[in-house]
């Protein structure tokens, strides 16, 4: 049955991969990774025991009316963690010290509603427990719940992050979030600097199994002519969705199951139906091709590696202990009268079209 999803020419590769899946790390029985210093799996056990159930219940209601918000929350956490660490900096509004991370090109396509959902969750949690839970922890839990409530794996995440006092400049934001037109070499190099292996990179890219993209993020593959690594029928349909190179339309990222957190994204790649260069090239490049195939044929393997990479991502450069603060409004630092942003830049030449 599953084989029907794959082209005949790929079957020998599949058989080889089935035999060699064990080469890819992660055993069947997993023990949770050791948390980063200052974080713990039981951080709020005594001080806010209902924290995770408050968030889970609220998001169940939110997603019941719009499951698309799950993708928005997952991406928000990724954009928080990759720029300056998981410190809630992406949530901050701009100030007199400069435009916020939100204003940087890669973040212009974050869903406005994702920020509203996080602030609503903060209010609910702080009402229940007092102002002791950080916006960065709430964002991390919301991203995990986005995965779970879309049908993906459940897992525990270490907690205890504190919120940052600064946001990154436009250029720092751009330097840390690779663009969709990047190839595998660029993506692997960029993510290896944050400690991610090629298997982590392919697993994290599986986040694109839910959500949407604007045409402008992939028109480089449609205009002036078809990227030869793109399936012809997929291309024809995308040209209808995106009739011009600067169309503001959107499309689902995983055509097989756009709202379900499953491994179909990898099946898309094997059928040359990945949306971005950064997605499709994972299957073209010999260093990552076998990892893509192994996830396409084994969803459990994908889930295991995704969870492992997400826990790693959720602990990038976290603030703990007495560092930072617990914000009482996720979009503002508590005392807004000090401007501590070290590096003010005002170069506005980036364009939405690239993201
Ligand atoms: C590896 C490099 C990555 C690149 C180049 C990339 C790029 C992009 C782009 C261009 C979009 C569409 C933006 C738009 O046009 O609206 C997008 C959407 C999305 N990305 Fe990524 N991404 C990457 C990694 C990740 C990771 C690690 C995750 C999470 C684990 C993730 C989760 C998502 C989700 C869920 C969406 C859909 C958001 C929505 O529907 O609102 N991405 N990504």
UniProtKB/TrEMBL annotation:
In alphabetical order, the GO MF annotations are: heme binding; lactoperoxidase activity; metal ion binding
Which Enzyme Commission number(s) are listed? 1.11.1.7
Q: Say what the protein does.
A: Removal of H(2)O(2), oxidation of toxic reductants, biosynthesis and degradation of lignin, suberization, auxin catabolism, response to environmental stresses such as wounding, pathogen attack and oxidative stress. These functions might be dependent on each isozyme/isoform in each plant tissue.
Q: Which residues bind heme b?
A: 208
| Catalysed reaction equations from the record | 2 a phenolic donor + H2O2 = 2 a phenolic radical donor + 2 H2O
Main localisation, per the record? Answer: secreted
* Organism of this sequence: Mikania micrantha (bitter vine)
What name appears for this protein in its UniProt entry? Peroxidase
Binding site residues for Ca(2+) 2: 209, 254, 262
**Catalytic residues of the enzyme:** 79 (proton acceptor)
Where substrate is bound, by residue?
178
Q: How is the cofactor bound?
A: Binds 1 heme b (iron(II)-protoporphyrin IX) group per subunit.
Q: Which family does it belong to?
A: Belongs to the peroxidase family. Classical plant (class III) peroxidase subfamily.
User: What does the UniProt keyword field contain?
Assistant: Calcium, Disulfide bond, Glycoprotein, Heme, Hydrogen peroxide, Iron, Metal-binding, Oxidoreductase, Peroxidase, Secreted, Signal
């Amino acid at each position: 049955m599953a084989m029907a999803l794959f082209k005949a020419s790929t079957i020998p590769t599949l058989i080889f991969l089935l035999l060699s899946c064990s080469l890819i790390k992660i055993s069947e029985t997993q023990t949770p990774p050791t948390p980063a210093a200052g974080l713990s799996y039981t951080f709020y056990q005594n001080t806010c025991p209902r924290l995770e159930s408050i968030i889970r219940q609220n998001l169940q209601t939110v997603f019941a009316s719009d499951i698309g918000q799950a993708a928005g929350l997952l991406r928000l956490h990724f954009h928080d963690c990759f720029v300056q660490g998981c410190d809630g900096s992406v949530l901050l509004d701009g100030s007199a010290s400069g435009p916020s991370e939100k204003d940087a090109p890669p973040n212009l396509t974050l869903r406005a509603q994702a920020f509203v959902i996080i602030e609503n969750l903060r209010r609910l949690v702080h009402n229940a427990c007092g102002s002791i839970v950080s916006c960065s922890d709430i964002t991390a839990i919301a991203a995990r719940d986005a995965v779970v409530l879309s049908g993906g794996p459940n897992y525990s995440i270490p907690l205890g992050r504190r919120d940052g006092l600064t946001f990154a400049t436009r250029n720092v934001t751009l330097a840390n979030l690779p663009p969709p037109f990047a190839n595998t070499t660029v993506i692997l190099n960029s993510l290896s600097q944050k400690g991610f292996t090629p298997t982590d990179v392919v697993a994290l890219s599986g986040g694109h199994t839910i959500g949407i993209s604007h045409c402008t993020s992939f028109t480089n593959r449609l205009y002036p002519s078809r990227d030869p690594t793109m399936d012809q029928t997929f291309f024809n349909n995308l040209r209808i969705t995106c009739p011009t190179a600067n169309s503001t339309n959107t499309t689902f990222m995983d055509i097989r199951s756009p709202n379900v957190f499953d491994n179909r994204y990898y099946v898309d790649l094997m059928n040359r139906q990945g949306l971005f260069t950064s997605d499709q090239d994972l299957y073209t490049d010999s260093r990552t091709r076998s990892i893509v195939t192994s996830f396409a044929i084994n969803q459990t393997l994908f889930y295991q590696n995704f969870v492992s990479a997400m826990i790693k991502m959720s602990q990038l450069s976290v603030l703990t202990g007495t560092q930072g603060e617990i914000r009482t409004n996720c979009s503002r630092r508590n005392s807004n009268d000090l401007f501590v942003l070290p590096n003010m830049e005002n170069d506005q030449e980036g364009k939405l079209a690239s993201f």
